[in-house]
Amino acid sequence: MEPEALLAHVRSGIERCWEALRVPGAAISITDRRDTLGVLTFGVADLATGRPLGEGDLFQIASVSKSFTAAALMRERERGALELDAPVTAYLPWFAVPSPFGPITVHHLLSHTAGIVTGHDFTGEAVVELLALTDQEPGSAPGARFHYSNAGYKALGLILERLTGRSYGEAIREGILEPLGMGATEPVITDAVWARCATGHVSPFEDRPWHSSYGLVAQNRFESGTGDGTVCASAGDLAAYLRMYLNDGAGVLARESVELMTRGVARDEETGVLYGYGLWTDDRGGRRLVGHSGSFGGFTSMVMMDREAGFGAAVLCNGPATWEARRALCAFVVSAARSMAGGGDLPRPPDVPFAHLVPEAAEYAGVYRGPSGTLEVRAERDRLLVDSGAGPFAAERLGPDRFVSADPALALFPVRFVRDGGLVTDIVHGGDRYAAPGRPEPERRGADVQSPFVGHYRLPTPLSSDIRVVERDGALHLYDLVEDGEHELVPIGDGRFRVGAEPWAPGRIRLDTVVDGRAARAIWDGAPFYRTFTP
Questions:
Q1: FRET pair for 408, CA 20 to 30 Å: which of 124, 126, 247, 521?
Q2: pLDDT digit string (tens) for 147-182?
Q3: 189 and 56 housed in the same domain
């Protein structure tokens, strides 16, 4: 293989979809089993200064770090210090959650099958955040289903500290980074490390979905050293990390440990991948691909490997690249390397759709009516325009049937189209519902007293999180404005609500401190959110 030809093909493919990525900069590395085939950089490290991105810039790789935690724990298992089927309380006696089910084991935490919550990052430290969960029961029996949990990997990071007698950062450096020669990589996020990182970029608004017309600003700085997502790496160092898995552990891990990490334990229904220990597997185009993604603090990332063919790729961005876009880029790079080595046809450029292009726009067109007024939705070629009365604003896709509009009257919530049998029947927007043409208009509720829980709440941290609680169709709904999620709130007694209509959903929220008919605080999975005065 000629690495120059491979890099030229990859660069050409990325440049053709670059605008659709909507990120300031990206670094991509490619490796085979023997060596790094190349590192490519695109765009800028910092929008404010315009400094070009360099190969030496570090990126916060967020949840890709979970594979580092899992790998370090596999080393502890190899030396007999860790049992996968042991209860977590054997290593962290204080992390005992109330449960009618069997014990949560290390295996359950590694595979996201413990039935515990995703968790929130509100301190940068693991113990306090986990202690907040010790009075919260799991949503389902351990091992019964997949539910992604950052909190679980925070606990695993503490187990690693207990077994090694080292801090999390020291344990990762000594156990993984130094043996692999990853000299540029930093295992935790500190103020000093920030100076070596590219700048993470986020929306200038924390209280609404991002629309590209808002632009991007630098992420606030923060410090964190937990096992769920604090490694800062260069693209070149990640190539060395991927070679460990391509070479069945490369003497750092036993082959059995790599097999345990890359076997499929439980399926993530949202993405379709099978999760193992800190890595997922994805059957794509007849190939078994292994990887992980990350998204946090203005950075997005993904690593992917074809272990059978012996190639791997890392994609690091300093802006909000979608999961689908990162997977497409990684798969393209790995496919290009495999095809060039085997003499096959080189893959087409990755299919990264523009958020503002909606080929099926005509399916949504019409005048939707509800108690709050009307919304006119128009299709102009492959663009979707939504008009609440102030003129049409172009909508951008957030996900299937979900869009964001920069119209001030609509900007705070996604515009979500509801289907029945494939046909669009309604628009849901915050606490409002609008019926499609020809459908019965939603009934206007009488002069009911609004729930004291409705409102806007904020978690005051450097990585501020905003949520809104709305009332719609006789039920409360929570909008997570950071993760861009919507959840029904189901009363479960004792002043608490289950976050999610699914009976197995583990999230819990308590809205309390009611003063003058309004709740002042929302305790969501242990994290304290406080009412703010803005709508």
A1: 521
A2: 999 999 999 999 999 999 999 999 999 999 999 999
A3: yes
Residue 58, domain extent:
3-64+181-342
Residue 175 lies in a domain: no
Encode pLDDT of 96-121 as tens digits.
999 899 999 999 999 999 999 999 98
192 residue type, one letter = A
Could you give the CA distance from residue 269 to residue 261 in angstroms, rounded to a whole number? 19
pLDDT in tens, 488-522: 999 998 889 999 999 999 999 999 999 999 999 99
Residues 418 and 498 in one domain: no
Q: Are residues 253 and 316 in the same domain?
A: yes
**Token output for 223:** 């410090």
Instruction: Tell me the helices (H) and strands (E) count for the chain, helix number first.
Output: 11, 28
- How many whole angstroms from its chain centre is CA 295? 5
The CATH code of the domain that includes 459 is 2.40.128.50
Selection from 534, 512, 533 nearest residue 522 by Cα: 512
Structure tokens at 292: 């992980």
The pTM for the full model equals 0.96
Q: Which residue in this structure is represented by tokens 């910092």?
A: 46
- In terms of domains, do 33 and 149 share one? no
